[in-house]
Design goal:
68 residues, OB fold (Dihydrolipoamide Acetyltransferase, E2P), four-stranded antiparallel beta sheet, 1 helix, globular
């Protein structure tokens, strides 16, 4: 797989929560869990399932920081 995004984190899918049109896919990347919000169609097209290996691909132009 070659993509332009520089931040790719390989991990294992630990949970998929499907909604009406969107799913939340949780990927464990070595103790930290990243959650992606993707379409249900993308979940089906990619054949995603709990226990399978997947990449979290992070493409962002901004990172925000907040405090309490």
């Amino acid at each position: 797989m070659k993509i332009s995004a520089r931040n790719t984190l390989k991990g294992k899918i630990v949970e998929i929560t499907k909604g009406a049109t969107t799913s939340h896919v949780r990927i464990d990347i070595g103790g930290a869990v990243v959650t992606a919000s993707i379409t249900n169609e993308a979940v089906a097209d990619l054949g995603l399932a709990v226990g399978k290996q997947a990449y979290a691909v992070i493409k962002a132009s901004d990172v925000m920081v907040g405090i309490d």
